[in-house]
Amino acid sequence: MTLNTRLKSVCAVLMLAAAAATQAQTAVPSVPAASATAGGKLDNRQARQQDRIAAGAASGQLTAKETQRLEKEQARVDKKQEKVMADGQVTNEERKQMRKAQRAANHDISRKLENKAGDAPKP
Predict the structure, then answer these.
(1) What are phi and psi for residue 77, nearest 5 degrees?
(2) CB-CB neighbours of 102 under 10 Å
(3) Where do the domains of the chain lie?
(4) Radius of gyration of the chain, Cα coordinates, nearest whole angstrom
(5) Is the pTM of this model over 0.85?
(6) Each residue of 76-94: pLDDT tens digit?
(7) Residue 47 and residue 20: Cα distance in Å, rounded?
């Protein structure tokens, strides 16, 4: 991949990350105080994961394709969180499901960041 192509890919990824962050900020549902703590922790974790993806893309640790895949996974987790919090109550079972989804996303991010961009997956 030429330097120019790589720069275009990184710019495109950063634009996607910025757009996703902007959308996430404007699409925050109002949540009653009772579940705000649970939602806050979930939101903080999502934000940290999003930051890790953006940093990996900017540093070149993630290819454009890897970044796109991780962004889609984050979007799925965001959608699941919105669905869980829609009724204003977060049950223990829903909290477990969210933690499981976020753990899986975190694992995928870590795995991709440990691989150098463009390297074949480790056996």
Answers:
(1) -65, -40
(2) 20
(3) 3-114
(4) 16
(5) no
(6) 999 998 998 898 888 999 9
(7) 11
